[in-house]
Specification:
- The protein is flat, with a radius of gyration of 32 Å.
- The termini are far apart.
- Among the domains are: 115 residues, no CATH class; 99 residues, no CATH class.
- The strands form six sheets. It has a four-stranded antiparallel sheet with strand order 7-8-9-17.
- The protein has seven helices and 17 strands.
- It is α+β, with helices and mostly antiparallel strands.
- It is 21% helix and 28% strand.
- Strand 5 and strand 6 form a beta hairpin.
- The longest helix is centred in the middle third of the chain and has 17 residues.
């Protein structure tokens, strides 16, 4: 390992290193504008901390990743000792570099009873790792390398391709969905509720219309926006002078037309004049209708599934 490996990683300009305090020292006010009122005291670095325009660490980590690739198959304890010779662990930047190291290396791998190398799902930061959940194969630990518990060498985790991982996740979701829901056709579906399969008939959502009524005994309405404690210069109009957008904002909504109750969710459902699906125990509470089908149907009838339905769904022979 190079003797100047530490400098190779650390010596790099930080983001916004060109931004000096002389650019802000004569500014007045908390926001940097001279006409702002100033109260109390303000730190010298306050003007640096605006959004993402702040100085931050900017290590050159490519040599670190190259070093990891070069020691694959070698003893980890010996390689890590060589790394520590060039690093002063008391330094803030050096400790930050080690965080990136542990984010790439799994240190707590173990051998299961069946002889497979496993690891716990967890998050590593600064040498402190929180392990939780079930043990998973080392290829699914989320890191690029691991310290082999059998011989103590650094090895590369043969992570599965992203495409195969996505396919596996989609297959698991379909399997979980089939355990509680079995569609028979476009208008019939079975749902598993409290240990019993129920048959639901799907029907199109009823059409309804939302109208906006004048609220109470109020005759005048202020139109516009009012900010804080500034003078209120909004225009005063009557209900008849308001446009549709203003009526939707200031009026009281009312549903006119047909509605129905979804027997699966036990909530009132309908489709308004804009084609928006409303789902809720009360009216006018639009939510994402995840329980409804993509064709705008609702569960109109409910009964216990017969043997014919169970056989059609493939649940019994």
């Amino acid at each position: 390992m190079r003797s100047d490996f530490n400098k190779l990683l650390v010596e790099r300009e930080r983001p916004r290193s060109w931004d000096k305090h002389c650019n802000y020292r004569h500014m007045k006010g908390p926001s940097g504008f001279k006409d702002d009122e100033v109260g109390g005291r303000e730190g010298m670095k306050h003007h640096y901390k605006i959004g993402y325009d702040t100085k931050d660490f900017n290590e050159n980590l490519n040599p670190l990743y190259g070093w990891l690739r070069s020691i694959v198959g070698k003893k980890w304890d010996k390689s890590y000792s060589e790394l520590c010779k060039t690093f002063d662990m008391r330094g803030v930047i050096n400790a930050h570099i080690l965080q990136h190291l542990w984010q790439s290396v799994e240190r707590h791998a173990f051998v299961s009873e069946k002889g497979a190398v496993m690891a716990f799902r967890g998050y590593s930061s600064g040498g402190r790792e929180t392990m939780h959940g079930d043990a998973v194969p080392i290829s699914r630990c989320g890191k690029d390398y691991y310290i082999c518990p059998k011989d103590g060498t650094l090895k590369k985790t043969q992570k599965a391709p992203r495409r195969s991982v996505v396919k596996e996740q989609e297959a698991n979701k379909r399997k979980e969905l089939l355990a509680i829901k079995r569609p028979l056709n476009d208008r019939e579906v079975l749902h598993f509720i409290d240990g019993v399969w129920y048959h639901f008939e799907l029907k199109p959502l009823p059409e309804a219309k939302i109208v906006y009524m004048k609220p109470g005994n109020k005759d005048e309405f202020r139109v516009g926006y009012h900010y804080g404690n500034s003078p209120d210069h909004r225009k005063v109009r009557t209900w008849d002078e308001l446009n549709q957008t203003e009526r939707e904002r200031l009026g009281t909504p009312k549903v006119v037309g047909g509605t129905a109750r979804d027997l699966l969710t036990n909530e009132v459902v309908y489709r308004d004049q804009k084609g928006v699906i409303h789902l809720g125990k009360g009216f006018l509470h639009p939510r994402r209708a995840n329980e409804l089908s993509s064709n705008g149907l609702y569960h109109a009838t409910k009964k216990t599934a017969s043997k014919k339905h169970l056989k059609q769904a493939g649940l019994i022979d």
